[in-house]
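Section 5.1 Outputs to date
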Amino acid sequence: MANLRLMITLITVLVCLFSSFTKSSKDIRIDLPKSLNLTLLTDPSTISAASQDFGNITTVTPGGVICPSSSSDISRLLHYAANGKITFQVAARGQGHSLKGQASVSGGVVVNMTCLSDVVVSKDKKYADVAAGTLWVDVLK
C-alpha cells in the first residue's frame, strides 16, 4: 500500500509540473477517446464547482473534470494530454486550497483528487497510508 501512496504522490507532482509544459486555451474542445476509458465531466454544475477555489478568490474555467478511480487513470490522461491530437493542461485538485488558482486550469482538464480517498491503517496502528483526496477527518476515524 505504501507503493500505491508513493505512486499517487508522484503522479500528483507530475500533474502539477506537467501543466506548465503544455498549451491550453479556452477555445480548445477536449474529446477523450473511448480507449482511455475515462469519463470527462462537462456539465455546468461540475464545471462551476471546479472553477472556484476554496476561498472564492480565483475563478478559472476548465474544459472538463475527471474523477479518477486509480493512479493509472491519471497516467493515461497525462499521456494523452501530451501526445494526443491536441495538447492541453491538466491540474490536480484536492479541496481547492491553492494560493493563485493552481488547482484549476483554463480550458484544460481538472483531476478531482477527492475521488481517491482510500485510508489504510497499519496493523500496529503506528501509521496511516492515505490517498490524495482523503480528508483529515477520515484519517482520524
